[in-house]
Specification:
The complex is a heterodimer of chains A (about 375) and B (about 70). Chain A is an alpha/beta fold. Chain A folds into two domains: about 280 residues, Rossmann fold (3-Layer(aba) Sandwich), CATH 3.40.50.11740; about 45 residues, no CATH class. Chain A contains 16 helices and eleven strands. In chain A, the strands form three sheets. In chain A, strands 2-1-7-8-9 form a five-stranded parallel sheet. Chain A has a four-stranded parallel sheet with strand order 4-3-5-6, sandwiched between helices. Chain B has a single domain, classed as SH3 type barrels (Roll), CATH 2.30.30.140. Chain B is about 25% helix and about 45% strand. In chain B, strands 3-2-1-4-5 form a five-stranded antiparallel sheet, covered by helices on one side. The chains are: A alpha/beta (about 375), B alpha+beta (about 70).
Amino acid sequence: MLTMTNEQVRTTADFFTREIGRLAGAQPIRLMEVCGTHTVAIFKAGIRQLLPKTIELVSGPGCPVCVTPNEYLDTAIAYSKNPQVIIATFGDMLKVPGSTTSLATQKAAGADIRIVYSPLESLEIATANPDKKVIFLAVGFETTAPLAAATVLMAEEAGIKNFYVLSAHKLVPPVLRALLMAEDTHVDGFLLPGHVSAMIGIKPYEFVVNEFNTPAVVAGFDPLDILQSIYMLVQQIHGATPRLENQYGRIVLPAGNEVACQTLYKVYREADTQWRGLGNVAGSGLAIREKYEDFDARTNIPVTVETTQEPVGCRCGQVLRGTMLPTACPLFGVTCLPEHPVGSCMVSVEGTCAAWYKYGAGRWQG
Amino acid sequence: MCLAVPGKIIGIQDMLATVEIGGVTRKISIMLLPESKVGKFVLVHAGFAIQEIDEEEARKTLELFKELEALC
């Protein structure tokens, strides 16, 4: 790829913006991105401001932390109270409120909770603490799940017996199907997640077009990538020719990363799982296969979990289905703030509510 | 969470590679990208190489990353 000068970038952006405006027409168009990194990139680049008023961009369930249900958090929190346990987690999970407390509160109270950048660090922690049980909070979509699977294989090879995963992994294609089948969700086109697709490739999305006639474009993260992807979607909508296209071809190969997918399914099998806001979605989660059940926290470490409660008034569920903008939630910016989040969408930097709060100033009323 | 950044592989020992990411070196696993070679650029996600990328793409993405960081 050739480097573009600033002038070329401007000219290209102008072209996409103009063409989107020309093709969009008078009918409202609703596009959904299903990736928290896209949500943030759209805000940071000011993409909404470039689009005609008829085009609405909504965020779907693309932030792994946000879609993780309270029951999982309550389980992780319960494990953190066990003095024999060390919790290893990505930092995003810390502030997410469970039913009555959060991991951050538990950590402040003395629980041994370590923030890791990579699941591999969990193995180092396990090796350094042979008398403790190290539980990695395995959240994330298909981008992250193969890493957790690889870590399990490495633990097996190294003979590490005190490493466990608590799986809350989620799969993107089944939740797209659930959204497309939901009566209250209307989407005219999907911006598909770039790095999930780098792992799974293109084929798993074919049903979006074949069964639901809905345009879909795998999109990159550069502002021009996103503008071009929106242009591609609007072209499809304008021509009534729904297709599955790959705008991010320089990273996303048609077959994805086959080694990663093989690793993933060697350790995990598809299973039903709960999503915040969407409930149980068939085949949208990952459970550890019997062969590797020695690494499954739920199977090996008994725990008593409190009765799960949902935060009163929180509309994260509707926000995650794209049926409500964060600004329509009565708690948004009032009692639910990044410093004191009530719902998960306000916690993660990639959460829809957090992004609207941070970057949406001046557009809340519009 | 699915954020991935480009890094240049400057050394490989078994399934561990040393990568340079924006001037900082760190160890990553190449278990999910076993064909990785020294001198190549890869996309790094949470301590693992997940895809090979070309140098120009790597440079552009790192610039974007710095730009976004500056805005945060």
